[in-house]
Amino acid sequence: MSEVAVAVEDVSKSFRMYKERNQTIKSAIMRGRTSVHEDFWALKDVSFTVPVGSTFGLIGSNGSGKSTLLKCLANIYYPTRGTITHYGRLAAMLEVGSGFHSELSGRENIFLNGSILGMSKKEVTRKLDEIVDFSGVEQFIDQPVKNYSSGMYVRLGFAIAINVDPDILVVDEVLAVGDAEFQEKCFQKFRDFKAAGKTVILVSHAMETVEAMCDHAAWINKGTLMTSGEAAPTIAAYKQSYGHEA
Amino acid sequence: MHYLKEVLAARELLVNLTLREVRGKYKRTVFGQLWSLANPLALMVIYTLVFSLIFRIKPDPGSPSGLNVFALWLLCGLLPWTFFATVLTNGANALVANAGLIQKVAFSRIVLPLSLVGAAAYNWLFEMAVLVIALSIAGAFVLPWVPLVVLTMVVLAVFAAGFSLMLAVANVYFRDTQYFIALILQMAIYLAPIIYPVTLVSNASKDVGGLLGTPFTIEGIYQINPMVHFVGVFRALLYDNRFPNPIEWVICVGWALAAFVFGLLIFRANEKRLAEAL
For the segment A131-189, what is each residue's pLDDT rounded down to a tens digit? Predict the structure, then answer.
């Protein structure tokens, strides 16, 4: 197999499921505890590798642990056990327009959001035209973003995120944004990414998207990895499990 | 060391988040940055009325500056205090208010509380500049002391930052923290010599003597409050125009370092769990 971009090794993640949660100092002092909980394992010993240059799909039904895994990949959650190693700069797109300040202009927000996503001021300045161009909001770039339509807002957010230019891009189902034209632009961007030898990890419910874009995939069900590898057999196995559209 | 590097790498983000606070705050107001003067000025007017005109509190004239203006004397202690109070109040909310961001993007979380310190410091700097001008007009030769004032401001900012790191984490687990701190701050202004001179406490302490036959005096306990020393240093520099008591200065620096290191350790120990805990 080719080089590895991301290696996920025996990753398990538990959350506390609270039977009661009373986060006040009163309950901490009076009863010596703030909560009663039991552990819920959202991920159980998941291991797989993502080859460099692949477009990797994470599939599975609701509540299967996909998003938890994605957040672990994005360094937002930390695995309870196991390790995730990535080789190269990793950027995650779990939400677009994170940290936008509604009273600030589009331009100011590009710099703000860019630095939240880990870009330096120089980088943002260099890519400013590209970002503005891609988002298609040139006309309104000096207006406060609170006046933007929801589509414009999302497009600007996406344009910034896609221009972080990482080696590995982790994407949640944010593809379902914007009109058909903008979506096509996004897909084109992902294809460019792939052509440039970069790795994309994608979580989606839309099987057509995964089929069209991914060459590798992993199927997760109730926190355990069912199968991973080439996209077609993995998707086929997943589809078979729920029986229709097979 | 590794952590310091990470924080250093995030300094641009820190600057940007600070600017977000600073720029966003007075957007769409007619008076803009002038609003940051409104609060201390309103407090100055009411405290001067009540404590100077009604209660007849008479602080010693500045020596050697010769100043004898209650309002200016008050501001030399009040402005550092309001900065400190603002940092604590806002800092306690720093993580909770940005829960969405923390759950969606990976970045050095420490910049969130620190950016609020930066934003408050920016306003404070503006207020202090106005105060220095006012003091100069009133006849104090304050300009040579400005570098030391700025240094002390940095020390107080470090002290406040340490506290806000602790409070921000505490507020994630106990939302009571924000209300509790508001209450404490309301009372604490009377526990430091901000609107009355420290000599009143010394005199009262001498009259009472050792408490319940112990060697502890009221003044001894009063001196535990670090803000007593910060206010003392600021008044010496700004109002009296003389070198502050070196011991007092060392106490301030000690408190600042202790608070910051402790705050940093607490923050660091909890940083990775924040996304889940929020």
Answer: 999 888 888 999 988 898 888 888 888 888 888 888 888 888 766 666 778 788 888 88
pLDDT for A59-103, tens place per residue? 888 878 888 888 888 888 888 888 888 888 888 888 777 778 888
pTM for the model: 0.87
Q: Per CATH, is A4-242 categorized as 3.90.700.10? A: no
CB atoms within 10 A of CB A184: 11
Looking at the partner chain, which of A101, A111, A116 has a beta carbon nearest the beta carbon of B105? A116
What was the ipTM of the complex prediction? 0.80
Q: How many CB atoms lie within 10 A of CB B275?
A: 20
Cβ(A120)–Cβ(A63) under 8 Å? no
> What are the residue ranges spanned by the domains of chain B?
9-195+217-277
Q: What percent of chain B has pLDDT over 90?
A: 60
Interchain pair B105, A111: CB under 8 A: no
Tell me the CA distances in angstroms from A1 to A4, A130, A241, B166, one per residue in order. Answer: 8, 35, 28, 48
Alpha carbons A56 and A234: distance in angstroms, whole number: 11
Are A99 and B24 an interchain contact pair (Cβ–Cβ within 8 Å)? Answer: no
Shortest Cα distance from A77 to chain B (angstroms)? 7
Token pair for residue B160? 């406040």
Inter-residue contact A156 to A135 (CB < 8 Å): yes
CA angle B103, B4, B83 (to 5 degrees): 75
Q: Which residue is associated with the tokens 């005199």?
A: B203
CB-nearest partner of B174 from A23, A103, A115: A23
The answer to whether the Cβ–Cβ distance between A104 and B24 falls below 8 Å is yes
Helices B226-235 + B246-270 axis angle, to 10: 130
Strand partners, A201: A56, A170
Distance CA A191, CA A55 (A): 9
The first and second tokens of residue B79, run together, are 């402005």
Contact A106, A148 (CB under 8 A): yes
b/e per residue A82-119 (b: at least 16 CB within 10 A): bebebeeebbbbbbbbbbbbebbbbbbbbbbbbbbbbb
**CB contact B24 to A (< 8 Å):** yes
- On chain B, the residues whose CB falls within 8 A of the CB of A120 are 12
* CB distance A198 to A169 below 8 Å: yes
- Peptide bond preceding B64 in cis form (omega within 30 of 0): yes
